[in-house]
Design goal:
By secondary structure, the protein is of the alpha+beta class. The chain is built from 3 helices and 7 strands; from the N terminus they run ββαβββββαα.
Amino acid sequence: MTDALPLRVADLAPNAPTPFDLKPDAETMRALAEELGLKGLRKMRFEGTIEPRGSRDWVLRAHLGATVVQDCVVTLEPVTTRIETDVIRTYLAEMPEPQGDEVEMPEDDTIEPLGSHIDPAAVMVEALALALPLYPRKEGAELGEAVFTEPGATPLRDEDMRPFAGLSALREALERKKPDDGDD
């Protein structure tokens, strides 16, 4: 168990995992909730290890558990969500250099450059921000149809905007116009 964060890489055990177990206090969780635009944050825990990989690289493996309260995107009522997610970060002493004029994002988004410290608390905050539901919705809440038009005009509805909405009516009209295939 470790209390001093961030962890200095030079102080990590080179042959064994270094465990950590973060349980932010109520004040820290309030500040984090405010920073992330949450109505509430409770029961947060980030537990894992930092292990050596090869002679110079390190891997952080952890599990994040948190209960968050957000506004429903439909009703603005509070929505409570339990987040359980595994987190992996690989810290490389030598990051591969991108080649060419255009740089593409690497497929492995868990790779980080290795600095002098590894900060599990910063990884915890990032992992929580990435795991938050983008559009939290209270159970049973549905977004109704909005219809706007100028007075006297026929309103354009969501159904009218769907690209294939009129195809079935067109097919039926064409079938009615088809000459009979009967043999005379």
